[in-house]
Amino acid sequence: MRAPGPAHPLVLAYHSVAPRMQERLVPSMITLTTELAAHVSALREVGRRILTAGQLAEELGHGGSGADVAVLTFDDGWADALTVAAPLLASLDVQATFFLCPGLFGNPERSMSFAGRMLRRDEAAALHAAGMELAAHSMTHPDLTAIDDRALAHELSQSKLEVEALTSTPCRTVAYPFGRQDARVQAAAADAGFALAFTYQDGPWHAYAAPRLPVPAPGVPLRW
Length: 224
Ligand SMILES: [Zn+2]
Description:
Elements: E1 10-14, E2 16-18, E3 30-32, H1 33-45, E4 49-51, H2 53-61, E5 69-76, H3 80-91, E6 97-100, H4 121-129, E7 133-136, H5 149-167, E8 173-175, H6 183-191, E9 196-198, E10 213-214
Parallel strand pairs: 1-5, 1-10, 2-3, 4-5, 5-6, 6-7, 8-9
The chain binds zinc ion.
């Protein structure tokens, strides 16, 4: 890693977190606990404040640049968010943002999660109770650029409502599934009431196409 990084918020995009690699797991979806802890240390060493996506939205809304901010984000709602990531993050005194698909709670897909499935609704509530931020990642993880206006509005606003029902807190941010977006999707995210919407690639800062840095597979150094 190298300092100081981009002169805008540095948002890292993770999926599943595992204490060790397993054969069935898709490497690009996994971060080892040792690497996650090393990222936190490195961010602090270069003076980045680690905030949630919602806290970042708040600061930007008050005119801040977020240039000294880092945000750790975790996509999809894999069950190891609760069993592996949250305890580690809490021990490091870090609050992170978990982008969830409420329509996929309890999904048994195994290959991309150390825990071997996705969070159930009660586990998502427990993740929030453990001090983590929950945010929206659509209801069912479609390519938002490929669905009609009505489905697009539903995917965005319903996931926002369901996250808010779990947390009793405004859900101000969304991550586009696959990072896929265009001008129509950006406008729909704004219409749904989100203050920030994240892609899955690096680039210039834009509130409704906010860049994130995908974290590479285990053993591949993270460069920002
Ligand atoms: Zn996703």
